[in-house]
Design brief:
mainly alpha; flat; 62% helix; 10% strand
Length: 164
């Protein structure tokens, strides 16, 4: 199992509803027991002060690899606290995997359109690159023209050289 480098904060009410849903299924099942042991055995309640702050114990910092700079990642009914660089990497990986999953779903639901897209996409990339280059050239020309106009309309300063 890959070690995750973050610390999760979940509302007590969410944990209670999760436990209740498993208890309603089959209280004595091995699967249920494994779930409770794996998830619930390491849960700890944290104390939040009047300013909304809490302290991460050293064991939490070691587990989550949190040093100094942190990143909060919202997850709907809970959030995670990451060491900033690891959290940024995690977000990029998650977005990449989500796009891959979404593309696979699209291919399954719309195979003809997906095939058409795959056929046209390389051509689109070439055309987009050309259009972007043309736009960049136009913007550069426009800036040059604006600079030239500004220079033409700027007050001319007479040189007042001193001679002896």
């Amino acid at each position: 199992m890959k070690h995750k480098s973050h610390f999760s904060i979940t509302l007590k009410s969410k944990i209670n509803s999760l436990v209740k849903s498993f208890d309603e299924k089959d209280f004595f099942s091995k699967k249920n027991d494994h779930f409770k042991t794996a998830i619930l055995s390491d849960l700890e309640e944290i104390n939040i002060d009047n300013d909304g702050r809490f302290t991460l114990r050293e064991t939490h910092q070691l587990f989550s690899k949190i040093k100094k700079e942190i990143l909060f990642i919202g997850k709907g009914n809970h959030f995670e606290i990451w060491q900033q660089d690891l959290g940024e990497k995690h977000k990029l990986e998650s977005r990449k995997k989500f796009k891959e999953h979404a593309w696979k779903q699209y291919q399954q639901q719309h195979p003809a359109k997906a095939k058409q897209y795959q056929t046209l996409y390389p051509s689109y990339q070439v055309i987009k690159k050309c259009v972007d280059e043309i736009k960049a050239e136009q913007q550069m020309k426009l800036r040059q023209e604006q600079q030239l106009k500004a220079q033409q309309h700027a007050p001319k300063m007479k040189s007042s050289g001193m001679s002896r």
